[in-house]
Amino acid sequence: MKYLIALLVMGLLTNNFVLSKFYGICPFLGVSKKLNTAVGMSAAVIAVMLLATAATYPINKLLISRNLEYLQTVVFILVIAALVQMVEIILKKFMKPLYNALGIYLPLITTNCAVLGVVLLNVEEEYTFIQAMVNSLGAGLGFMLAMVLFAGVRKKMESCDIPEFLKGLPITLIAASLVSLSFLGFSGIIEGMGLI
Amino acid sequence: MADAKKRSLGKEFTKGLVKENPVLRLVLGTCPTLAVTTSVTNAIGMGIAATIVLVCSNIVISALRKLIPDKVRIPAYIVIIASFVTIVQMLVKAFVPALNTALGAFLPLIVVNCIILGRAEAFASKNTVLYSAVDGLGMGVGFTAALCLMGTIREVLGAGTFLNGIQDLLILFGDNVLNGWNGFDLNSGLEAAGLQPITLFILPAGGFFVFGILIALANKIAEGSGKPKAQLNGCEHCPMAGSCTKLAQENKSKEAEA
After folding, report:
1. Least confident among A46-60, A100-114, B227-241
2. Contact B89/B108 with Cβ under 8 angstroms?
3. Which residue segment(s) compose the domain that B114 sits in?
């Protein structure tokens, strides 16, 4: 149990998926302009991450039992792509309001390295099913936290007087650097809480 | 005729280096750019791996461009790219194991690198095999060059070394190449001058910072020759963008109705 909490805290704070492991930088920079889109995108990412982890876990067991580990990358990306399509179709048919809120972010997620990244990490670390699910949840929540925080920072930045040559992308990256720096402050929190 | 063809081939190659540099001008493949540039060795390794995948997948996709139905082209491209990534991954594991450990999950993640899918969609699906190969090579070399530039800045400032651990890559050519030379170490010189490397630069925060400054410089240079600034295009260059923007517009109009 302690280990599961540690995994969650790691994904969320000390090893934040976006700010210290650099997964999913494209949506982090591209979709964080407004708070509501940031929340929508991250909710979709969390859902797909959990689904992808649940779906790839038995498939990976099957691959290992047949000595086909080398097919992992190919199979996982296809499973994720199919899963995203399926979620989109199901949402469109049965949960129209949710589809309207999250639907536009779903096609983007297939090529989001955060989802494939977390699946590959779970395999690499040889987590059990529960551990893998918790790790994915932590990673997804970490993604959400970074997106929401950064959306706030960018909103503040809009009213700032920024030097001409830094306007646009450069100042966004430098702001991301400062947000990432603030997350360094969490290092050691797991040892401090006595989780490991 | 032959002359004209040669010249434009050269153009296809050089555009990836400077004018359309995938990292600094098109802002693609940001995740590996930020993650692996803590040392120049990793940057070179990542650059070469991505270039091989890029050239091979460009060649195959271009050769099959008339056979792949338009509707399933993205899944088809992903399968082709994933196969080459798997091949490269196995080669790296076998011949340069240290690089495999250093790059971690970012080696298989070349699959979702937007540069590769982007070039497949924007170039290889419309051009002949030779041109696609040259385009892939140019983009790959441009990617590697940008990674090396960032890696140099971060490694020298952050760790006080340059090309540290290069033997991990040189092992490809046998043991003890260049008499076991393993990169420059500037730390002793720095210490003598009472200085220390700025560790911040090899931390994640330093990655964002250096990338931001490099984009600003690239913008400044491009502005001088009348080119537009690099834009935040998390989506526009993504091959999914077409369906995405359409969906977004539909959503907006629905919202307006409600």
Report:
1. B227-241
2. yes
3. 11-187+194-257
Of all residues in chain B, the percent with pLDDT exceeding 70 is 86
Distance of CA B164 to the CA centre of its chain: 21
DSSP codes, B138-152? HHHHHHHHHHHHHHH
C-alpha closest to that of A45 among A131, A135, A143, A130: A143
Would residue B3 count as lying in a domain? no
Distance from CA of A67 to the nearest CA of B (A): 14
Q: Looking at chain B from residue 93 to 132, which residues have their Cβ under 8 Å from any Cβ of chain A? A: 104-105, 108-109, 111-114, 117
Q: At residue B154, what are phi and psi to the nearest 5 degrees? A: -70, -40
Identity of the residue numbered B238? C
Task: Give residues 31 to 60 of A whose Cβ lies within 8 Å of B.
Answer: 31
Residue B39 located in a structural domain? yes
Which residue, B124, B205, B222, B114, is CA-closest to B158?
B205
What does pTM read for this prediction? 0.87
By CB neighbour count within 10 A (0-12 exposed, 13-18 middle, 19+ buried), where does B4 fall? exposed
* Chain B contacts in chain A segment 64-103 (CB below 8 A): 70-74, 77-78, 81, 100, 103
Please report where in the chains the tokens 């600003």 appear, as a residue: B216
Q: State the Cα–Cα distance between residues B60 and B80, nearest whole angstrom.
A: 8
How many structural domains does chain B have?
1
Residue B240 contacts residue A107 (beta carbons within 8 Å) = yes
**Domain for residue B251, yes or no?**
yes
Structural contact between residues B233 and B226, judged by C-beta atoms closer than 8 angstroms? no
Residues composing chain B: 258
**pLDDT of B175 above 60:** yes
SS3 A155: helix
Q: Does B1 map to a domain?
A: no
Other Cβ atoms closer than 10 A to A46: 18
